[in-house]
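# step 3/5: fold
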Amino acid sequence: MEKKSRPVLVVSIILILFSVLFLTKDQISLAATVSGAKLLQLQEQIAKIRIQIEEIKIGIEIKSLKKEIAEKEDLMERVRMYGLTLHQTIPDIILDGLYPFKVAEELATTTATTTEATTTSAEATTTASTTEEVASGATTTEIVTTGGGLGEDTTPVVSEPEPEPEPPPVICNPVASGTRTYSVSTKANPKMTQVVINPLDVAKFSSQTVRVSIQETNEASITEVSGIAFLDNNSFPFSFSLVSGTDINGTWQGSWTNLDTYCNTYMLRITATSASGESSVELAFK
């Protein structure tokens, strides 16, 4: 029995070895297939990248050609407009005094593209300054030009004006306060005898009342009484009306509103008119 079982065991072992061998080959074949697919994907990606690089190069070349075409067209337009020749450089034409002023003015505001004739002259640097002073000396304008070459940009540099000194404070001496009565006299008719001011120290944006006693000795009716207040910067006219007595001998009253200061000037002028003529009186408080 043992001799019969040995050949069977050997056959079984051989079968097992063959199955293992064939299984290993399949795995190797599968791995090789996967690696080949990945390699193809990488090759496709590299090809796409190369195509993109070529497209970028073509785009750059197209932009360069467009720029060159634009420059050629600009040069041809200048030749057509200004009569330049293609064999002359712009600096040569300027030095010969043949370059139109319009083109020279245009080049002054742009960057010069021709450097052949400006190499030697660019070494010199000139600085010019012009100072303009106003009466107060507050404004200074300085113009600086750098470089002696063609097409240099000249930009005026304006310094900030110095602040003006503040004026000294105004010292305003006060006037008498409250109601004040003044005796006056006029030679001509109508004759004014007394003026009452309430208040004399009228505040800004406040009103002042003025009363005046007037007599017409010629028995002529007083037809009009008016007044003017003179202050620092403005004058304020006002009118009177009869408040007591008659138009021959009575008291007239008027008022005005203060909209100014009276630190330096403060005066009242009262004028009366009748058939006899006109008379006036002035009261100066400053």
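# step 4/5: annotate
Residues 232 and 265 are 5 Å apart (CA to CA).
# step 5/5: archive (pending)
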